[in-house]
Each structure stands twice: as structure tokens, then as C-alpha cells.
Amino acid sequence: MEIPYTVSTRPDTGLWNAKVGIWLFLASEVMLFGGLFSAYIFLRLDAPPGMWPHGLLNVPVGTMNTAILILSSVTVVLAWAALKMRKYRAYWWYMLATILCGVIFLTVKLVYEWPQKFDHFGAYIKPEALGKYEQYLGNEHAAAKGLPPRLEITGHLHNRAALNDPNIKDYEVALDPLNADPTNPAMDRPHFFPLPVTDKIAKIEKEDVERATMFLPTHSAYFASYFTITGLHGMHVLGGVLVFIYMWLPVSKKLYQRNPEHLANRVEVSGLFWHFVDLIWIFVFPLFYLL
Amino acid sequence: MVGATLLAFTAITVALSYVNFGAPKANIAVAMLVATFKAGLVAAIFMHLAAEKRLIYRILIFTGFFVLGLFWLIFLAWYDYPVVR
Q1: Chain B residues with CB-CB distance to A41 below 8 A
Q2: Spans of chain A, pLDDT less than 50
Q3: Which of A14, A43, A82, B38 could hold A90 in an S-S bridge, CB 3.0 to 4.6 Å?
Q4: Which residues of A touch B27 (CB under 8 A)?
Q5: What is the ipTM of this complex?
Q6: pTM for the whole thing?
């Protein structure tokens, strides 16, 4: 079956079909992510003081991933331009570079960033017990400096069994630097390079804990929105990579030999999708990593 | 060229987040302004929105309208239930 206007433009709109199609799709994507971002704003505005964590994510890694996505946006434009000039070889290489960028992005997310979160522990202390853990929280220091109150002790949980075993009465936590040395002015603001967990161990009695979890979506509104938004974004990256792989494989060479403009249009349309995914990340990165 | 600008502004966003603009709100505003500028560059240059056909602008005007409505809902819901803030 011959589908009209795959390469030629419709006389009434001046556009070929797929271009209208992808823009309609992107419009629906804007609504999808718009809903999630507005949920983020709502949750964040609604968070009581001290309940929205700052500086938990690895900024250098996030910056690198941002750069990788921007780079891949550039290479996909170059790939399209190469096709327009009928240079298949150059197109093939630029496409490969784009695919690799997408794969690196996903690998960093799934192999490095997320598992690190799953392995980190936080315990919110009950309001009446905050004084008992002042040596780890430094709330007097925080109040004097005008910082939000510190309600949580975080670090590496040594006795993981404590999470599920009611017979274990306390959590043994190797403290994060903030909780190990809470009155140190260097801990007042997040660091660019994340500091490693210290070897200072704290015992936190379960009785004093309001809520204790690993850094999972159940931990807080922050991590719930973090995993939802970066997860959905990651699925978009994965989708883009799969489409690019298809257009990079030999099957597409056949299409190129038959009708190079058709392939160029396909690349343009999926490139539009890819730029959109990049654009979303440009907002995700500061919202979760920096602010 | 555009790519280099985007990378530079990524570095700027990161650097600015360690500068204290007086209030967290000010830092958020600055970071969002930079991000919007970058997103504008991506849309205008990479996505060819600087010069596109009329139909596409029309689709996007609709989208903009509805997405703004989505954000406006936050303010509508804000005083709907009693919470101690």
C-alpha cells in the first residue's frame, strides 16, 4: 500500500504527515510530563520544613548525563543533515554515536544512580525524640544559622534485618557526613562532590523513629516524584534508543537505497522526539539535583 | 554551536546553584530561567520551531494553553483542605 505524503508535503498544510503526527504526539507528551511536574510543584510546596531533602543526588554524575544527552541531540541533527546530503556512511556513524549516548545515559541511571539509592537508609525521628539525637542532627546549630530543621538521620544501614525483624530494637547506621558532624559549617550546604559515608556508627532506637526506609519511592514525596519522573524519562530514552537502533540497522539501508528522503524524514521525526526527551531532562536535572 | 551553548549553560546552572541568591526562591527562579532559556534553544534550533508551518504553531498554542491550565490547578487546589504550614 502506498501511503501518500510520506515524503511530499500536503498542499493544504505544507507539511508531510509524520511531522504533524509527531507534533501531536509531543503535545500529548507535554501534557503527560506537565501533570507530573505540577504534581512535583504541589508536593514540594506542601512539604513541611525539613521534609524536602537537598543535595542527596550526585551532581557531577547528573551534570555528565545532561552533557551526554545534549551531545546526543547534536549528533542526531548531524545524522539527519548527513542523510539530507546523501552521505550514508556519515549518517551511520552519527547514529551510532547517538545510540551510544542513550545507552550510556541509561546505564549510568540504572547501574549506578538508582542502586545507590536502594542501598541508602534514612530514619525520620519522632518530634519528641529529636533532642535525644541532637549530636547527630545539630538542630540548634541549624536554627542559629536559619537552616531548615533536620528530622532525618541517614547513612548506610549495617543491620538490614532490622527493617523487617520486630525483635531487633535499633538500627545501626554508618552515618552520612552531615549526621556525623552536624555542626560543621561545611555541612550547611550541599557539596558538589558527594562525600562518602563515614565509619561513625549511630544506634537509633526504633521507638524514636517515625518512619525508616531505604531511599525508595516510599521514603518521601521527594523520592516518589524523583523515581516517577526520572523513571518515565528513562523509558522515553529507552524508546528513542530502540527506534534509533532500528534506523541504524541494515534494514534501513534498504529503505535508503529505495527512497533516501523517506529515511531522512523518519530520522527527522524521531529526532524531534529525542530533542523533546532532552528538553524534559533540562528541567529534571536542576529540579532534582540542584535545588 | 548551539550544542556548545547548551553545555556552557549546563555548567552555569550547576555553578549558580552553589551561589546563594538570598533566598531559596531566588535560586529556584534563576535555575528555572536558565533551564527555560536552554529549552527554548532546543525547541527553536534543534526542533526547527524558529521557522515552522502554521499548523504546528497552532497545535503548540493549544498545548501551551492547556499545560498552563494544568499548573494553574495547583493554585486552585491550594486552599482546598486545612493543612498546618
Answers
A1: 71, 74
A2: none
A3: A82
A4: 291
A5: 0.86
A6: 0.90
